[in-house]
Description:
The protein has twelve helices and ten strands. It is α/β, with parallel strands linked by helices. Strands 4, 5, 6, 7 and 10 form a five-stranded parallel β-sheet that branches. A three-stranded mixed β-sheet has the order 2-1-3, with helices on one face. Strand 8 (286-287) and strand 9 form a beta hairpin. The two termini are 24 Å apart.
Amino acid sequence: MRQLAHPRDKSYRAPGHGQAERVLLHTPAGAPEPPGSFQPLVGPLGRIAARVSGPPELIAEAESGLPDGAARPEAVAVRLRRSGVELAWGEPVTTDDRLLDYARERGRSSVELLRADPSLVTELEAGAWFNSAWRARLLRRLLLRTRTAGLVARLPLGELALRTAMDAAFWSGVRDAAGQAEWRRLARSSYVVLCYHRLAGEMKQGQEAMDLPPRLFRRHLRALRLLGFRPLEAAELVRFHSDPDAWLPRRRYVITADDGFRDNLEPLFAASGAQLFVPTSEVGGNAWWMDGEPTASWDELAQLERDGVAIGSHSRSHVPLAELGEDELRESLSASRRE
């Protein structure tokens, strides 16, 4: 699934200390270890940050503009992480409240933090409702509706019961503090991304996992329609991620395809709102990473765009970005967008 980067908060500037500084995060004493949930490339810390300790000036800079509250250490840690400061987990600390009360206060505090700095949504727990499997989300909704988190915490299930109860208590705090539109955005707005590569159905050796017959692709689209899913246009997707007040109706999806293979042209024409991401220096050539398969030309891509398919950047040359140095990485990304 494609992960959008967070918009930088214009009210906060990285203090410039970088990797030379090290900050410790402290979890609440007695809090359970986090479950093995989904881990997106951009996401929450993974544990509850009850306190941040380190150079006072560095922490004060990261606290700028943030309201006080139980979730502020989490937001401070996120800002420090964005600025390149090394984070490490220290010894647990005791909180003033019982764990369920503390979790509920963290939820309320998170809403205030998101109002002060909406860009934090991608890295706070309050923005991670959909990082759990559907069964966990269903149980969470049940506990929120019945308000039985305290009862669950007393069940003889050990760490699992406490973790489940704290999760429900946190989200009850979010719901109590959030307005209707805020709650709809945080806990109701989601979309599914389906990512494709080749759409030829040739099933060449070594390409079986990357090639789908066009007839099967059309069946995917038909099944989505029958299930009540509707496509999400590129402009709607960008607005949802850039506008703190935007929300999505239920059952939305996005069709994306990578690499710009020529066999994508006809199938994507039938996919409303589809997005095609191309390595710009490889347009109109042969994909060296896929046995020399032909890629669409600029004229073909322009026609596809006129037909309603959004064309986006997939770097310049399809080289794994993690293998590039910082200057090469910046050039690959910026040059591909210019092209």
